[in-house]
Amino acid sequence: MAGDAVTITPDEIERTYEIIRPYVRRTPVLTVDAGDLLGQVNAVAPERMVLKLEQLQCGGAFKARGAFTNLLRRAVPAAGVVAASGGNHGVAVAYAAHRLGVAAKIFVPSISSPAKIARIRALGADLIVTGDRYADALAAAEDWIATSGALSVHAFDQRETLLGQGTLALELTQQLAGEGGLDTVLVPVGGGGLIGGVAAYLGKDAKVVGVEPDGAPTLFRARAAGHPVDAPAGSIAADALAPRRIGELVFPITQDYVDDVVLVSDDAIRAAQSRLWQSFRIAAEPAACVGVAALMTGGYRPAPDEHVAVVISGANLSLPELEGGA
């Protein structure tokens, strides 16, 4: 297991899981045939391939794990909580706040999916749409925090957020323990909360591969520079995988424990979204499909004896969006 970079250890992730387990779902894994998922022509068939169906998580995405960890492990003031989000984190914080009876104010940029905006409103949070990208929403949220005294729940660069997201890797390890284990996991990357938590838990016990849209290469750019740097945000997955840069807490973990970062095109993401729907009736938003896209395009080529898991991270989209992409 990993060491204690920024004090994110497997033991603490395990303790965190016991705290949040009553509030989150233990999402299933689905074993899939490589030909069905990747197509007969492009398939590089590993020995075993599974999908971790985190789109079935409370709030429709893995973000619920980090949201509940923040609200349950930190002192929440009377002013409640505030979050900036491309969409899924906002849904998760709104859901956790609603479940725990806490006031929530959520800032999102104009690129957020209408489906995500509708879900945040339906959960009773005070929603503010501002700016064109996540960084704009974050700046507005920070201004509000300074004047209100509300608790900031960061989407990715917060210790508790990383601990919560790491519980996905704990579950996955448990679920595959009797099925040949886990060699490699493909993880979507935006700000890095998910891959940071997963990598902190797995350490060197499994290969961790990040996958990003080529129009929003936050971790790819940071690895090339040797430190977090600004990246563009032009992608169909921009509402979920396009912060300005990778998290400062996240980056050292990825340097130690992430083996590779793969970029995929918007066309490949659309094709993966369609394949998941057409072959398995899995409804997944674009950001959740990047791992499948990496396999379909050969961006990541598993060995024949490899046991591969792909995280399907969220499904906060409308039916017209899904049918339009498929």
Number of strands: 10
Question: Which outline best applies?
Answer: globular
Low-pLDDT residue intervals, each spanning 5 or more residues? 1-5
Mean pLDDT: 89
CATH architecture of the largest domain: 3-Layer(aba) Sandwich
SSE pattern, N- to C-terminal: HEHEHEHEHEHEHEHEHHEHHEH
Strand content: 5-15%
Distance between the termini: 39 Å
Question: Can you walk me through this structure?
Answer:
With about 325 residues, this protein is an alpha/beta fold. Helices cover about 40% and strands about 15% of the residues. The chain has 13 helices and ten strands. The strands form two sheets. A six-stranded mixed β-sheet has the order 1-2-10-7-8-9. Helix 1 packs across helix 7, helix 3 crosses helix 4 and helix 8 crosses helix 10. It is globular.
